[in-house]
């Protein structure tokens, strides 16, 4: 039987779970792949730490980059994290040495994916990163192989479990963002520094990867428009519900070139709106298959290790794919700006001084920017002085929306203004 | 570039759509696979029929089995249907000649899968049937490759779009089964002879395939317990809704050996309950990934052709897999009976004579069979003589349920009895 030797760099929860899967399932994996997949070497920060399994029979490297040059290693698993530094150094060294690399590192792939894909091709090595997008969902395999026959029109989804947990908990409990974030941190759903999650950066890393495979473009993180969820208030969640919508952080890229991450209003009954807690979901709109959706846990040791080992088993089985679905030379470079041509309906809430003529003034400003109100809720506040104007606006370009918001902000009667959010009908 | 020549047997809607995809996307498919996939030959019942594209440049065979022995064909696509006859003859002949076979034929694979898998292995050919299960959803690829690292606990789903259309339309309109079936036939959602769909046979063919891949067993259609939806009344749908459930035809196989297709009550908010119309859905419960779900169109020319061409592209890319995820010798044979050890909660409706002591008599019979009522709706009918006892019963074995139903039927006060249905909590 073919021998396939694996080294793991990083023994955090994902690395440890990956190691245990490989150690405990060698014979069943051999039956499925026709290869004897053997964990041979590991590298981590602390050799002595108890990880719940015995590493004494494995070769230990203090420096992860040393794994790249070990003679009898076929696949290097990079689960250390960080877009640069040791992760990038190890990945480059391993690919250069003709070793296959399996990584869960979305930031590294989103930022250095092209360079690494070329390096893999040049050295006849595979570069696999299924676990980098949507955790346990085989989101890249579905897109790259399962839907390979299709023209993709759009790929979208809930790509960050932390944000989805926060938004759905705010909705279910009526609590404020900061309060729910603190709880999520205590529960381990959010990092001590939540920036990557709540500011949409993590979701954008994943979207850059999905976009590249879906539309045959070079991954270009810098090209994405990114809005996180810090500005979402419990008030907006409750108004959205009154209007029949739920707010979700959605990453979406289209064949027309639009690509971004932003909170959106989704109809209450839609598949993505029904996704609660730290679950991820990916929607593929394509011809001729129509719409395919996949849902599952977007993070955590088990789901991530499931995807890491699936990549290892693909390589061990001899199932080769280009990292981004095509050779690097067949990926188009992206222009500096995403398209802003797409029209959307928008949600906007204005806190205004409750006096005669305000609504007329607001509609005048909107009209001047070619925008108009489709649905309106007007609510007097308890102080008797202010009111909320909650609007769903008819379809317009994002350019017109930005113009209108800029003008509305200058009006003396307009106080607080919500984050404007696209509405999916 | 590697050349990969394809022949298609059957030019119905799926065959015609497959042909058009291959003819129209040759260069994009070459970029993705590294192979020049070329449609060379076709066979169908009528050569002259207008199918919306030009077949004059393609080699024509009157007898589909002749495609198996054409020298320059690498992949034979079988989309004629029928578990035996020409489809089986062609598949055997093609595999015996060392040609790869891609088929959408769930009945053939469910009934002859083992024999064909062995034939494929013996001749170093691939046998692919992604399109046979859940239409456009890459349901087999997700299970066999995407979740390859996992121990599967259960695979379940909505595997027949016709039944799901009928059940969700009955629910939305309050109309009766026969009425909605006739409409579905008129709309082309159901066949003139609806037996395979509404009696659960089509779903069971698909379940036999999923079960084999999930649990490393030989596909064994005869082993499945199968109940269709003919006995579902609008009354039961409405009572189920009152209790917070929706009725769906569910195929489910577990690691414990249970495998069957039957209507079930699912909680209103659950992912599968929210699937309406002809959509399919598959749920995978597995360790360590937890639960992954996929949804999409379960039938139709576009979705099915999408999966057929994905198989062709896998073969053209050199991505080999065993048909059922392991070599034929590694698939266990199944014993004659599925396990009946699993406990379930059940829904049961009895029409009874509305007189004193009836409920006490019914509960006595249930008690004698080790069963008890969890939730009860008692409704007097308009005639004043009869009443409905609608019950959710506490968890019990299916053996106890059958005993209890047999005894209840002999009671003089019990008239009509609903199909007893498992309830998912």
Describe this structure in words.
The structure is a homodimer of 425-residue chains. Chain A is built from 13 helices and 17 strands. With 425 residues, the first copy, chain A, is α/β, with parallel strands linked by helices. Chain A has three domains: 2-135 and 304-330, NAD(P)-binding Rossmann-like Domain (Rossmann fold), CATH 3.40.50; 139-294, Dihydrodipicolinate Reductase, domain 2; 343-423, ACT domain (Alpha-Beta Plaits, 2-Layer Sandwich), CATH 3.30.70.260. In chain A, the strands form two sheets. In chain A, strands 7, 8, 9, 10, 11, 12, 13, 14, 15, 16 and 17 form an eleven-stranded mixed beta sheet that branches. The mean pLDDT of chain A is 95. Chains A and B meet through helix 2, helix 5, strand 12 and helix 11 of A and helix 2, helix 5, strand 12 and helix 11 of B. Strand 12 (290-297) of chain A pairs antiparallel with strand 12 (290-297) of chain B, so a sheet runs across the interface.
Concise description?
The structure is a homodimer of 425-residue chains. Chain A has 425 residues and is of the alpha/beta class. Chain A has 13 helices and 17 strands.
The residue-averaged pLDDT of chain A reads: 95
The count of strands of chain A amounts to 17
Return the structural class of chain A.
Answer: alpha/beta
CATH architecture of the largest domain in chain A: 3-Layer(aba) Sandwich
How big is the Rg of chain A? 24 Å
**Which oligomerization state do the chains in this entry correspond to?**
homodimer
Name the CATH superfamily classification of the largest domain in chain A.
NAD(P)-binding Rossmann-like Domain
Biggest contact = A-B, 59 and 58 residues
Work out the helix count of chain A: 13
User: In this structure, how is the largest beta sheet of chain A organized?
Assistant: 11 strands, mixed
Counting structural domains of chain A, the number is 3
Q: What portion of the residues of chain A fall into strands of 2 or more residues?
A: 25-35%
CATH T-level topology of the largest domain in chain A: Rossmann fold
Q: In percent, how helical is the residue content of chain A?
A: 25-40%
- Point out poorly predicted stretches of chain A: none
SSE order of chain A, one letter for each helix or strand: EHHEEEHEHEHEHHHHEHEEEEHEHEEHEE
Distance, first to last CA of chain A? 55 Å
The backbone outline of chain A, from C-alpha atoms, is elongated
The CATH C-level class name of the largest domain in chain A: Alpha Beta
